[in-house]
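Entry 14. Ran structure prediction on the chain below.
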Amino acid sequence: YNYWRFKWLKRNNGIHQAACPGRFLICSDTKSGNPIFLPREGRMKMGAFFQKEIETMPRRQLQELQLENLKWAVKHCYENIKFYHDRLDAAGVTPEKIKTLSDLQYIPFTTKADIRDQFPFGLFAVPMRQIVRLHASSGTTGKPTVVGYTRKDLDTWSDLVARILVAGGATQDD
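Output, structure tokens:
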């Protein structure tokens, strides 16, 4: 998971820029956090995968996995976070009612205000002893938001970022 090291180039006009040597620039909008990959011409290797069995999974199998994960997430939140238990009950949603991916439409949105109202740890679904990293906003526009990550969360995040980077042409040599 430590294949890629980035040099932060600059932050201006709401854009963060980082370089992956010889491959591409990664930029992210500081307001949305959305990544923008800018490949350097002639450096892209097409068809590379970080986790080929996952990234090339047949659509039917992918949808089955997505549904399994959705059911697990709704059940986990319903059973472990009072806020979501109450919010789902108010919407008439229980874990048993999630039967298809289209049932996602019945799950209420979580807003930034909801996250702030549960400050600091009201939305954590695991005991604090399982939290290995905390990220928090500065709270410049109101109450700060806090997000906690477990070891599994960080491993999953590492895999997802690695998939994006390999898809963009990064290799172990970058």
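The chain is about 35% helix and 20% strand. Will compare against last week's run tomorrow.
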